[in-house]
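In practice, a research group might receive sequence data for several interacting partners and want a quick structural hypothesis before committing to experiments. The following worked case mirrors that situation: the sequences arrive first, and a predicted assembly follows.
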Amino acid sequence: MSGTVPNPFIKKILATAGPTPLPPRVSSVMAEPVMYHRDPAFVEVYERVLQQLPEVFQTENDVLLFASTGSGAMESAVMNLVRPGQRVLACAAGKFGERWLQLLDAQCAEVVRHEPGWRKRIDPEDVDRLLTENPGCEVVFATLSETSTGIVHDVRAIAEVAEKHGALTVVDAVSGLGAAEMRQDDWGIDVVATGSQKALMTPPGIGLASVSERALARAESQPGGRYYFDWGRTAKAQRKSPPASPFTAPVTLISALDVALEMIHTEGIDNVFARHALLAKATRAGASALGLSLYGDPDERSNVVTAIELPGDVDGGAVVRNLRDRFGITANGGQDELKGKILRIAHCGYFGAFDIVTSLSGLEMTLSELGHPVQLGAGVGAAQQVFVDAGSAVGSS
Amino acid sequence: MSGTVPNPFIKKILATAGPTPLPPRVSSVMAEPVMYHRDPAFVEVYERVLQQLPEVFQTENDVLLFASTGSGAMESAVMNLVRPGQRVLACAAGKFGERWLQLLDAQCAEVVRHEPGWRKRIDPEDVDRLLTENPGCEVVFATLSETSTGIVHDVRAIAEVAEKHGALTVVDAVSGLGAAEMRQDDWGIDVVATGSQKALMTPPGIGLASVSERALARAESQPGGRYYFDWGRTAKAQRKSPPASPFTAPVTLISALDVALEMIHTEGIDNVFARHALLAKATRAGASALGLSLYGDPDERSNVVTAIELPGDVDGGAVVRNLRDRFGITANGGQDELKGKILRIAHCGYFGAFDIVTSLSGLEMTLSELGHPVQLGAGVGAAQQVFVDAGSAVGSS
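A structural hypothesis for the assembly, expressed as tokens:
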């Protein structure tokens, strides 16, 4: 087995849940000459991106675009909707749910914390109970796909409960948008925050917030304490004809997003959801065929990343290192309390059937090399069976 | 003369003060496969960027890196240093000086406003007087190069005055850093905020704040109201060994910045300053030879962008449109109160002698086409004479 010095002849494979691999056309557009952000040729790209984004969110809202990561878009939601001392409810069942808590603490909000534990899907009945027990929560914060656990939460049901209590719902969909089904308007979600580097198949550096009119009105009713992430300023600039970014636009990333959105539009958002569902199903089948358990209570909707519990006879850190150093595969292990305990196989964004075959194949060889008994090809075969049974084109990189 | 439909066979020339043209190596690195931000191969790039940045600022501070534009870095300074109600002094002699005022108003600071007018360089004696008349200003905000007017302010003298009054100095160097001479530590400047898209020869999307220990201590003494732009969080993450970005890093942009910083380091920061000074001198000579006046009181240090007053017999908007539609040159006219009155010729970042020749040549032909009497070649010739007299290699694109 090799040491930690990477072999330059190993083909590098990016298999993380973000940043995710880019389609070649997305990569190459960034190497084209940079455009001035007020040049009509760029404004055309910017306008097209703003017009195409709502389809991915399944909304008629304006989608506000920031030069930031997804965490910046999350901060925008907190800074625009919550003033110090206001009471809100935040659901956290993993590292990114906990980011809502950190953001709300930084804003000195009075936070009703719902932390049922990392293995759990948020139960809307618990949210209902907490909102009854803690009257006056005007905003509920939740996570669509919790990247740290692979669990997709039922944000539709959470939004229904929040609506019943007269509260707005804000969803972190950084890793879920465009991978796990989410229909913002139909599901009554007021704000969806996301980033460019997951299913949107663009490098990190764009933060997006799809904001309902009533959320925008709430923000405008309580100004101050924000500028760069102020929704009103960005909405006003984007609503000009033609739209004008309030600050220098991240032009190379927006050009990349333009290409990626066109690909998503061409595939069709329902086909995009179906592809992710199929890739996830094949991954789950592969893991099961290797005798491995899925983490937590994953259900049919865990279509972004599959969290697999690692067997007790192998060192979880060694699995990630072996995948990287022996096979060139960059994959995620567990974070924080799950460090060393799980492997996360991503299928979010520009992923096709053979990416799943590759990840499962790497996992099989790694387990074998680390001394865990495994029948080479068993996981791969089970995944292949899912693709064969699907009987439709499944895409490949 | 053509209409507004661009001729696709016109070679496009970016001559704005930001985004600026990229070196081909910087462009092409962004088309390489995306890396995971925790992958050792990327962490190496990130660490190198953090190590090379201080040289450009001429500082020993940590330079904090954000996924944002330069305005985000400016917001970080306001949010970390100023609490609502605190008294500060802000100097504004142009659109970007006014951004300090907007940011400070958003933060509900008590702002002593020094607005001497757009034509003026900030006079340090005025700053001294205002700090005397308004005791208790703990922070002074200023601008190095005011992009909207082409005027470079004497931030060294402003910092000396601020220091005398016990105040911290914060400088917006978004368009100046790496073009106009600035030596942060020697000049006693506590905080310098900038963006990637000007003399750093990288696309927009990275915000940078070089923060002194005492500025960091002030920030840490007054927590809350910020998360994404919190200096303490980012400093702590960057000081780990190896450094770890607090959020997903904008990997393609950081890889681009890595290439650009290596080019700056190879050229040598003093040579970089000298190149910009020479390009600016040639531009000024060209404008003068055409009988055009420079805007305001530009002095020898206006090395970022040259603002030229347009003659009264031409429509300023038509100059910009003609440059773009007839000659493919994207250049900046005036903003806000200078709209239609000036043309700004940029020489900031990846610019060489023939970029100046091109811009002046385009300006001459445009003035001629718009009916202003001009001797074709006169401005170009005067610029050439400056390059010939310089007697050294001057670089070209």
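Before designing any experiment, note the following. Chain A has a mean pLDDT of 94. Chain A is about 40% helix and 15% strand.
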